[in-house]
Amino acid sequence: MRDDFHMPARSSAPDPKTVSAALEAWFDEHGRDYPWRRTRDAYAILVSEVMLQQTQITTVLERGYFTRWLQRFPDWHTLAQAAESDVLKAWEGLGYYRRARNLQRLAQVVMEEHAGVFPQEHAVILSLPGIGPYTAGAVASFAFGQAQAIVDGNVARVLARLHEDATPVDSTRGKELLWERAEALVKAAADPRVLNSALMELGQTHCRPTKPACDLCPVRRECRAKEPETLPVKSARTELSEVTERVFFLRTKEGVLLEQESGSRRTGLWKLPALPESTDAKLPPVLMKSRYGITRYKVTLWVHEAPKLKKWNEACELIPHAKLAEVAMPSPYRRALESLMREREGELL
Questions:
Q1: Is residue 348 part of a domain?
Q2: What residues contact residue 295 under an 8 Å CB cut-off, 6+ apart?
Q3: What is the pLDDT along the chain (349 residues), one digit of tens a residue?
Q4: Which residues are annotated as catalytic?
C-alpha cells in the first residue's frame, strides 16, 4: 500500500499537463536506448511495433530478430518482393505468424498504392491492412511527431492506476476511458514522441504488475492509486482449453518427412506430420512428449514412431537434411525435431 501521509491535497483527477511534463522530463533523463528509438523511419518503427506485439523486448533484441529482419528486408520494396517462405523463415521463433504475413501485405500496399512512401495522415495509416489504433498511433507519433495516443498493456496499467479506476480495461467502457486519457496526455505534451515512449517505459520499469516502484515514479504526486497492485482490473479470464496433438517422426538417408500446414494460423509453415486417424486404435510407440501454449490452448504434443502406411498425406514432403534449417517451422516442432535428431543419431530408414 502507498504511503500518502505527506502527499498534498489533490483534485479529483490528475492534471494532464502536469503529468505529461513530469513524464517527458523523466524520460529525457532515464529513457532506455532501443534501436527503434534512434530513428524516424516509419518502416523500421513499424517493424519493431509488429514484432513487439505479444513478444517481449528481450526476445526481439537479444535474439537478434529486429536486426536480422532489417538486414534481410531493409525497406518496403524488399519486403514486398520477397518470397513468403523467406518472410516466414525470418519470423521463425516469434510465433503468431499472421503478423509476418500482414507486414508483407502492408509493404505491398505501400508500394502499390502509395508509391513506396508510408502515408503520414493518421486516418490513412489506420486504413492500411494489419494496422489497428495502437500501431497507427505509435507510427504517427514516433515517426512523424503527431499528437496521437497509444494504449498497450503497459499504458493501460499506468493510466488505470493514475486515475485509480477499477473499470475493467478490456471492457468497452474501460477501453474508451483509456483512450480518452491517453489522448488528453499526448495533446498536453511538448513532444508526443517522448510522452508516448515515457508512458510505455514507466509501465515496463516502475509501474510493474507486481511490486511497483512507486517511490521512484515521476508522477507519484499525481497518482491516485492507494493499492496499485489491485489495478488494472480485467474481466474474467477465459480458461485454457487442453488439446492433444499426435505427430510422427520419419527420417531416411534422403531427409525428414514434414507436412506443410494449410490452416489459417500457420499456413505455409512446416511441421512433423500428423498421425493418421486410422492409427488411433493402436498407436505407434511414443518417442517424446512436450507441452506448449498458443492463444487460449494448452497443447500436449506426442511424437510417435512412423506408422506403416503405403501412402502419406499429399501435404507431406521429404525435406533433404541440408534444407531442414531453411524451412520455416513453428518453435514447438523445431525443438522436437532437433531433439529427435540428436537422440536418434544414426538410426536411418
A1: no
A2: none
A3: 444 433 444 558 999 999 999 999 999 999 999 999 999 999 999 999 999 998 999 999 999 999 999 999 999 999 999 999 999 999 999 988 999 999 999 999 999 999 999 999 999 999 999 999 999 999 999 999 999 999 999 999 999 999 999 999 999 999 999 999 999 999 999 999 999 999 999 999 999 999 999 999 999 999 999 999 999 999 977 788 999 999 999 999 999 999 998 876 778 899 999 998 775 568 899 999 999 988 788 999 999 999 987 788 889 999 999 999 999 999 999 999 999 998 876 555 5
A4: 49
CATH (domain of 147): 1.10.340.30
Domain hosting 161: range is 16-230
Residue with cell 533484441: 61
User: Which region holds residue 295: left if phi is over 0, alpha if psi is between -120 and 50, else beta?
Assistant: left
Examine residue 4 and state whether it is found in any structural domain, yes or no: no
**Residue 48 CB coordination number (10 Å):** 23
Report the domain count for the chain: 2
User: Is the whole model's pTM more than 0.90, yes or no?
Assistant: no
Closest CA relative to residue 110, chosen from 88, 90, 81: 81
Is residue 120 within 8 Å of 147, Cβ to Cβ?
Answer: no
In-domain check, residue 96: yes
Distance CA 166, CA 161 (A): 9
Return the amino acid letter for 51. M
C-alpha triplet 255, 261, 262: angle, nearest 5°: 145
Of 189, 210, 230, which residue sits at a domain end? 230
Q: Does residue 7 fall inside a structural domain?
A: no
**Calculated CA dihedral for residues 187, 190, 194, 200, nearest 10 degrees:** -40
* C-alpha torsion angle, residues 304, 310, 312, 318 (rounded to 10): 80
